[in-house]
Amino acid sequence: MDEIINSQGFETLCIHGGHKTESNHAHLTPIYASSTYTFDSAEHGAALFSGKEKGYIYGRFGNPTINEAEERIALMEAYGLKDRQGKPLLLKAILHSSGMAAITTMLLSNVKTGDKVITHHSLYGGTQEMMDKVLPALGITAIQIDFKDPGKVEETLKAHEGSLALMYLETPANPTLQCVDIEHLASMGKEYGLTVCVDNTFATPYLQQPFKYDVDFVMHSTTKFLNGHGTAIGGIVIGRDIEKMNTKVTKTHRLLGNNSNAFEAFLLTNGLRTFPIRMERHCSNAEQVAAYLAQHPKVEKVNYLGLSSHPDHELAKRQMKHAGAMMSFELKGGYDAGVKFIDNLELCVSATSLGTCDTLISHPASTSHVVVPAEKRLEFGITDGLIRMSVGIETVTDIINDLEQAIN
Ligand SMILES: Cc1ncc(COP(=O)(O)O)c(C=O)c1O
Known about the structure:
40% of the residues lie in helices and 14% in strands. By secondary structure, the chain is an alpha/beta fold. The protein folds into two domains: 2-30 and 62-272, Type I PLP-dependent aspartate aminotransferase-like (Major domain) (Aspartate Aminotransferase, domain 2, 3-Layer(aba) Sandwich); 276-407, Aspartate Aminotransferase, domain 1. Strands 1-7-6-5-4-2-3 form a seven-stranded mixed β-sheet, with helices on both faces. The chain has a five-stranded mixed β-sheet with strand order 8-9-12-11-10. The termini are far apart. Residues 1-5 have low confidence and may be disordered.
């Protein structure tokens, strides 16, 4: 089954991947609203619990609606890739209640008290807070350095050899869109025996497949482009070490109670069916919006990976299929101009989050990154006037017309 699916096109896989014929022949996998699953006999129950037999046990451990989303996303991340033996890459995914839950499971199943994590500047605000507060409280140190400086990375890896356990990448990063070189960093991390993981939320498996490189885990906030309609919060951890996914990662996910639920998994799976065509439109709209903003006299700066002015333009071209749908920009007039602009919007929606069909605009300094101290925000390039935009799939001229009237 996996081999047949791997030989199919990506769009086909986004619609059919992971689907199993349902006993009542429902076209779509139903929302399994059942907290527990029955055993045929005591022996059957024991076989399920011991793992000798496959099947559903208890809602916190998973259910068929959740499983379909997991299998589909694992196939999407593995699409067209081979393992070290040249066979189609097999990945295992576990759906979570949120992107943060997925990141927490991945971290806590890979690091312990006394370990160190190495990461870069500019991470999603919630992840940054994990590095600053949650990990240190557990006796785990997060070392945050500039991953654009290979000499510094090498020096840090050497200096902390033995205590460093994990390398954490987020590329492109929220909200600065800074990209880091996954191939190079993963190979450096592996040289020092680290577990390497990538938050692939902004790029999605349509634009970037970190498992092409020597990466162990990929995480997503499925709340964003994968769901695409803003209907459900979710997250996913995908891993190449199936044994570790089935044991340590599964255990941590279950014990933390980080499970998704059937309703939100259904909404996610439904969103995946249109994911590739949405991504194409998101990206082409974003290119046109970025070109419009870049020539606007009232716009100070546009951060978009598709513009040659972005410092990571060449790197993004190398490791991503398109430049994506996320951008940020600064209006001349700083904070006040930014706030006024947001209040003037008529079509584009002022809201946090990203990756929905409609264009979402936010102000990171007062919302998603408000918990990050001001000096750290500035160090990461998140100025007070920075506006973040997730370009939707509306008619592009309507998006541009709304921006134009709001700026003016
Ligand atoms: C890059 C990135 N990772 C993780 C998260 C957390 O995801 P969630 O809100 O689903 O927990 C976000 C949320 O915006 C994000 O942008």
